[in-house]
Design a protein that fits this description.
By secondary structure, the protein is an all-alpha fold.
């Protein structure tokens, strides 16, 4: 009987940290957290609108080769 009691107590002690990680217990957001959420939402909306505008423009940047001056001129012998 003593072993069973000790086993039950040990299992209860192991379960306490697991139940502590389940959440905030229904805590309310503070005014500062609410402002941060609203700010992040406005930033996200601005980002989305900018990305849509860029996609609508359709202008892709011209890609340049920064090493173009350093390479030897291409010849037909090197190409196969």
């Amino acid at each position: 009987m003593r072993r069973v009691t000790i086993g039950v107590i040990l299992l209860a002690l192991l379960a306490v940290p697991a139940s502590a990680q389940r959440g905030g217990g229904g805590r309310q957001d503070t005014a500062e957290e609410i402002l941060k959420k609203k700010d992040s939402e406005t930033v996200d909306k601005q980002y989305d609108s900018t990305m849509k505008r860029l996609k609508q423009d359709g202008a892709t940047p011209v890609r340049t080769d920064p090493w173009a001056n350093m390479r030897a001129p291409a010849t037909n012998e090197n190409k196969r």
